[in-house]
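ok so I'm stuck.
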Amino acid sequence: MARFPALLVVRITTLVALAASAALAVEYRTDDFAYCGAESGCAALRHTPLAYMWGFGPSLPELGLLAFSALFALSLTRRGALTAYVAVLAGACGLALIAAQAFWLHHFCWLCTTTDLSASIGAGAAIAFLRTPPEARARTPLAAWRWAALAVIAVVAPTFWPELRPLPKVPATIRAYYVPGKVNVVEFADFECPFCRELHARLHGLLATYGSKAHFVRLNMPLERHSHARDAALAALCAESGGQAEAMAEFLFTTEDLSVAAIRDGAAKLGIELSAFDACRAAPATAARLEREMAVLKDAGFQGLPTTYVGGRRIVGAQSDDTFRAAMAHAAAGDDERGIPGWAFIAFVLALVAAIVRTDNGSAARSAERATERGAA
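replied:
not stuck anymore, here's the structure
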């Protein structure tokens, strides 16, 4: 009878699930988007009650890390049948979470799906293990300590990569707004976006620390789902000619009413001549300029709002003051280059894996592994 390496499949799929859970845990812990974008399925699921178990217990990624770590540790013991039953339970949970994404949340997180599919495949292997006679169960080829080392890599590598990865290059279309020798900050915002509004006051407070050394540019990115955003963006552009750009922006970010009538009233209070203001808002040249500003961010890879370029760093979302403060400090010091290439990191990880899985010719190690597998069977 041909031997089926069911336990090997369970261990490998659990390693994949561990790695995906670790990456997702990093995504949940950081203000930055380490593996997903602000408009991705990951971000959408992150803001659902399910992601944090409705306020009870750990987040789903943390729960996944705990569960798959326990399953993997169990697979290294002599309790093969118990390992299989737990793997089947994990697979059932994975299928339920895939169904929740498809039919309830209507978003798919690629890291969640990787975790859940891996668990489901592992469950299939576990069922095959339970249905296979003991004499037909293939042994796994590595010693237990080697498997444990692979599990450490599966958790550590995704955790450290966001800190080691190189910064993406700031597109030339955005660097064109930079002034040499300054702490350059280019913000893309939507005046109706609640996160843009929340960041507005904080960002200018942080910029004030650098005084004249700071150079700030705001570009417009009105979203279609915000019904008043485009009118507000046109108003902001048309306030520039009268030197009231920042005053108008302050009004637009803080007013509760962004209707055209309210915007015109705000412009009048700022001393802007309304006939010229109205003509500017209706002018094709103003609309064309707005489209050019929007195209800059779209071409750079739109992920969400607000998007702020601080020196060599891109920050998506209304992240913490510490995040912006650190980025400005790097920009002030001219320290915008860091990180190692992705291919070098992957090569390093693969070299570690290869060193761990290479054939162990020691007779003692082989004997210990055979004893463990006989017990698991």
